Amino acid sequence: MQLVVDPVRHTTSPLVTGGSVIGIKCSDGVVIAADTLASYGSLARFQNFSRLLKVTDSCLLGGGGEISDFQEIQRLLENLTTQDFCFNDEHKKSPRSLHQYLGRVLYAQRSRLNPFWNSLIVGGYVQSQSFLGMVDLYGTTFESEVLASGFGVLLGLPLLRKAYRPDLTVQEGIKIVEEVYRVLFYRDARSINRIQVATATVDGVTISEPYSLETKWDFKGFVNPRSTYDESTW
Amino acid sequence: MFRNQYDTDVTTFSPQGRLHQIEYAQEAVKQGSAVVGVRNKNYAVLATLKRTTSDLASTQKKLFKIDDHVGMAIAGLTADARLLSKYMRTECLNYKYVYECAMPLSRLVLRVADKHQIATQRVSKRPFGVGLLIIGYDQQGPHLYETSPSGEYWEYQAMSIGARAQSARTYLEKVFETLNSCSLDQLCRHAILALRETVAALKDIDLSTKNCALAIVGEDLDFTIYEDEDVLPYLDVIETGSSQPMDGQSST
Amino acid sequence: MFYSLSTLLIPKILESHTEIKLYILHSHFLFYTHTHTHIYIYIYMASIGTGYDLSATTFSPDGRVFQVEYAQKAADSSGLTLGMCCKDGVVLAVEKVLLSKMLLKESGRRVHLIDQHAILAVAGMGPDGRQLATRARQECEQYRNIFRMPMPAHLLAERIAGYVHVHSLYWHVRPFGCTILIGTWDGKQGPALYMIDPSGTFYRYYGCAAGKGKQGAKTGLEKLDFHQLSCEDALFELAKLINAAHDESKDKPYEMEMIWIKRDLGKASLVPPNLIETVRQRAEQLAREEEMAD
Predict the structure, then answer these.
(1) Cα–Cα distance measured from residue A128 to residue A230, given in angstroms and rounded to the nearest whole number
(2) What is the number of domains present in chain C?
(3) Is the pLDDT of residue A196 over 90?
(4) Distance between CA atoms of A133 and A21, rounded to whole angstroms?
(5) Which residue, B219, B230, B223, B229, is CA-closest to B85?
(6) Chain B: residue nearest C132 by CA?
(7) Partner residue facing C102 (CB), from B18, B153, B176
(8) Sheet harboring B212-218: ordered strands across?
(9) What's B154's DSSP letter?
(10) Which Gene3D superfamilies does the entry mention (chain B) (predicted)?
(11) C177 shares a domain with C64
């Protein structure tokens, strides 16, 4: 009789993944952006996948990490908004509530040792207040003026912090995240120069169609990589 | 009494399609001492009459705080009310844990009313023998709800349940249209005066700091219970018999 | 005993109320003839108190389940509830009796949103109806979770009817004391209206009525052409039927509640209060004019 039972194994690594998500808080709203790539390992598998979501008329979600987990979260949020719709009592979930809800969901999953393998950025604009918050796969929740996930933490955050001002407008915010994605595309091998930018403002939530960023490849180091390698690892 | 063969079980309809057990549970609400609830644009107020079994005993508990923004007054079986208050407190806490905000009143009351309904459909349960007046303040302003053992619930401008509540309702029906323009002070006075109607016919009872308790919740005020000497300032209305404050000033 | 009594009564009924014939043929529907109270009491006498009517799990010797029939009585105890399946959607309406003038508008609502594409109205015991609404929401949610599309009307009606039906099968629960109307619209199948009674029986309808005064309302519904009727027009027809069922001198004041799902709105919603008020006033005005003309 076998007495030793193998331990239960859940997903220990993500399969189809999205890369960085970037968020920036502005005086008149928030901007969240993501590129449209869903990679299968190192393969650029799905090049037109939207990782941005309109949750309510005032709230946005951007997701990186395991795509199927992100779709499951999308389903949970649809159930939640349908329930609110059925109550018909004018109580819609605020961005802060949704942020907290996602935190509880991801924390509960990780406590079952079966995490949703995502980093999520929640943004919204309610009663002239911008909200920007993040949830990671451990269920950690935090808020900040600028947020990034994935490689964006390493390559994007310094740029975002430098560019951030409390009086930024949404239009300026869009320019900043475009610049961040350009940099990410040059260095992050799991990225693509096709992005979507979403905004939450007093006019509600809009998610742009995917569009391509202009890139320049005539930089000496790109043309002849050896010349830069001589000077540094970058 | 009115005994018939269809009245001993919640799961048995009478030939007229009635459920006598629910109706009897509603009688239990009428046996409890009276409670009054009123609201204006910014506040909701409860006034309650507390009974005592003996001079050596404490008074019955009529007011329950559920959360910072919700509380209730009960008429009927106190033990049933305690069970329900525990359920409501848990619901509010869970909601706050998941959504980081106070539970909307409409959803809390719906849940507790659904709990009442379930107790009317199973052999293993009996209907709750208690009526609740629930007040609270949320994004939509102040609310006053009544729940019944049948699982029904309603939202009111003003309401009273419990023993001789009809006399309080008669008073309230005269004034409820003016309540929205009342100050908090006037609102409390209306609540006290309505409550007093329920004891007006009794010779040996009048409202006092011993048997009367008040609760208020509003835009800038968490659910707060006023009893013993704290209720004294609100009782002066009994002398004047008017909803106007004694000093004649009414802030709106 | 039952048959002999009712057989005795038939000639007497036919004598004074010829329109009652139909009910005699379906004798177990006799309870619905409210206007002939003295008659149905005789027929009751044959079976009540015999012990065959105390549980939903007991058949009477003549093959009836009395507890379910009593639940149907409960379902007809509330205000009139109507449904119309129009060319561009479904409208449900309820005559909600107001027990106190201190009640706020929309308090104790009897019409419910089930999903983006589905609506429900309750006749009878409101709390029982809420339980079924909750169940219907769960069914729709589960269907969406699996198939990522709105639940088709016939499946929703079948699931809820099944749920209602199992409550007539066990001694430890009672049947639901309500009849519910379910309306849906979906892109593929268009509008659909179903009515489910406490036995779990359900049919699809163009127009249906439950609650107090449903007989009169049914007659009114049969005069309408549902292939031509739009939701907008249906509001006025519903208001007229509810107004006709209501006796102002005798009955308590009531609130008209309406809910619809129609093509151009895309998702279900309560009919705006000002629209309801308009059609209600028009219906009352029309009734007054007709009275004057008489």
Answers:
(1) 52
(2) 2
(3) yes
(4) 12
(5) B223
(6) B114
(7) B176
(8) B158-161, B35-39, B43-49, B212-218, B221-226
(9) E
(10) Glutamine Phosphoribosylpyrophosphate, subunit 1, domain 1
(11) no
**Residue B6, SS3 per DSSP:** coil
Q: C126 and C33, same structural domain?
A: no
Q: Is residue A9 part of a domain?
A: no
The torsion angle over the Cα atoms of residues B212, B217, B223 and B226, rounded to 10 degrees, is -20
- Give, for C2, the enclosing helix (H) or strand (E): helix C2-16
Which of these, C280, B189, B117, B110, lies nearest to A83 by C-alpha position? B110
Token pair recorded at residue A196? 């979507």
**Domain B32-238 fold:** Glutamine Phosphoribosylpyrophosphate, subunit 1, domain 1 (3.60.20)
C182: which residues sit within 8 A by CB, 6+ positions away?
C114, C118, C119, C120, C136, C153, C156, C157, C160, C193, C194, C195, C196
Tell me the percentage of chain B whose pLDDT exceeds 90. Answer: 84
Distance from CA of A64 to the nearest CA of B (A): 22
Distance (Å) from the alpha carbon of B166 to chain A's nearest alpha carbon: 31
DSSP label at B122? Answer: B
The dihedral formed by the CA atoms of B171, B177, B179 and B180, expressed in degrees to the nearest 10:
170
Helix H or strand E encompassing A121: strand A118-126
- Pairing relationship of beta strands A43-46 and A38-40 according to DSSP bridges: antiparallel
C53, C74, C95 - which closes a domain: C74
More confident residue, B122 or A3: B122
Q: Which domain holds residue A56?
A: 16-229
Any idea which residue has 């809910």 for tokens? C259
What is the domain partition of chain B in residue ranges? 32-238
Domain identity same for C99 and C49: no
- Residue A187: strand, helix, or coil: helix
C39 and C97 fall within a common domain: no
Place of tokens 């919204």: A124
pLDDT tens-place string over residues C57-68: 999 999 999 999
- Looking up tokens 């107001």 gives C98
HSE-CB at C204 with a 13 A cutoff on CA atoms is 13
At residue A30, φ and ψ (nearest 5 deg) are: -130, 155
Residue of chain C minimizing CA distance to A88: C113
ipTM metric: 0.91
Q: Could you tell me the CATH number of the domain that includes residue A42?
A: 3.60.20.10
Find the domain containing C37 and state its range. 2-74
Q: Are residues C256 and C147 in the same domain?
A: yes
Is A69 contained in some domain?
yes
Chain C residues in contact with A75 by the CB 8 A cut-off are 145
Token pair recorded at residue C65: 């389940």
> Any idea which residue has 């409409």 for tokens?
B106
Q: What is the CATH number of the domain that holds C166?
A: 3.60.20.10
Nearest to B156 among C103, C128, C172 (CB): C103
C112 vs C62: CA distance, rounded Å: 38
- Tell if the CB–CB gap between A82 and C114 is shorter than 8 Å: no
Domain boundary among C74, C96, C124: C74
